[in-house]
Amino acid sequence: MIAFVDLAAQQERIRADLNRRIADVLSHGRYILGPEVAELEERLAAYVGVRNCLTCANGTDALQIALMAIGVGPGDEVITPSFSYFATAETVAVLGAKPVFADVDPETCLVNVKDIEARITERTRAIIPVSLYGQCADMSAINSIAERHRLTVIEDAAQSFGATQNGQKSCSLSRIACTSFFPSKPLGCYGDGGAVFTNDDSLAPILRQIARHGQERRYHHVRIGINSRLDTIQAAILLAKLDVFDDEVVRRDKAARLYDEHLSGLDLQLPAVHPGNTSVWAQYTVQCDNRNSLAEQLKRAGIPTTVHYPLPLHRQPAFAVDAVYLDSERLANQVLSLPMHADLEPSDIAMIADAVRTSLQQQHV
Ligand SMILES: *Cc1c(COP(=O)(O)O)cnc(C)c1O
């Protein structure tokens, strides 16, 4: 049986270190903001190459904290792709601001940079490009648009921790970046978790205050914040996982390349990695006309798949924007994510590819 994401196989490889690190937390007993949290923040900042990292309760909070830190609120607009996970735009709306959607590129599924520029108004405050499926959007082009219009760029790097663009790590490519440690993300813990990164030293203490009830020092609150912390046990788990993370990224990339080889020549669009990018393959997502019947036949062959995402954000009932985003809508009907994790065997990939080939051939007779 092939898993969509195999956390058990990964756990087997790091069990001794995991057990030791969790046992340390149980013995010192500092479950909230224990020493592992600060250790992890230092390691994460060094890993991506930025000066400041704040861990928090989940990736959604990370985005909300970032938006609160730059003062986004009612009357403001934030530009974000119409093809992403709901949380990206939800955090904008939660703060009373308006998410303004930009369409995406039909090949990479990443935000269409020209469409971002077309949607800027005098109310625009920020741009949230999403590093979807594991690779970064064109951050230098987006940063230069933002500079021209005095906007802040917040990378939604929930799916791209560990990816690079022109040799620099995701989470280091814009003023603020946010990631998620949800269990199935490339770097995941065993519960919820997230982090915010910035090289802006004046913003860093504000981010931290916001995540701690606006507290400047104990019981002294200088602003309205939220309560968003990463549990010490989750930090301990992430420290154990971080030690093997680079190896996992290599394994995921090998799996993706093997998929590419096996699936080339079929009536499918394979994932396109933009020049200058490396992907951490949060998803290996193909596009095909008969997506639903392919998914159904793979399911019958015991192969799990997922659709990321079946409904674009502008079509979600909660937003219901009366506009057409052609590329996002086509992608929502055509994308299908195949199993992807560091423990996929070459024989698994060959078997999945065979099932895909058989299904596509049947559709053509
Ligand atoms: C997972 C994800 C989030 C939210 O992260 P959580 O930790 O689940 O809150 C935000 N944006 C994108 C693109 C995601 O994939």
UniProtKB/TrEMBL annotation:
Modified-residue entries (N6-(pyridoxal phosphate)lysine), positions: K185
GO MF annotation terms: pyridoxal phosphate binding; transaminase activity
UniProt keyword terms in alphabetical order: Aminotransferase, Pyridoxal phosphate, Transferase
One of the protein's GO biological processes: polysaccharide biosynthetic process
One Pfam family hit: DegT_DnrJ_EryC1
Catalytic residue positions: K185 (proton acceptor)
Family indicated by similarity: Belongs to the DegT/DnrJ/EryC1 family.
The protein's name in its UniProt record: DegT/DnrJ/EryC1/StrS family aminotransferase
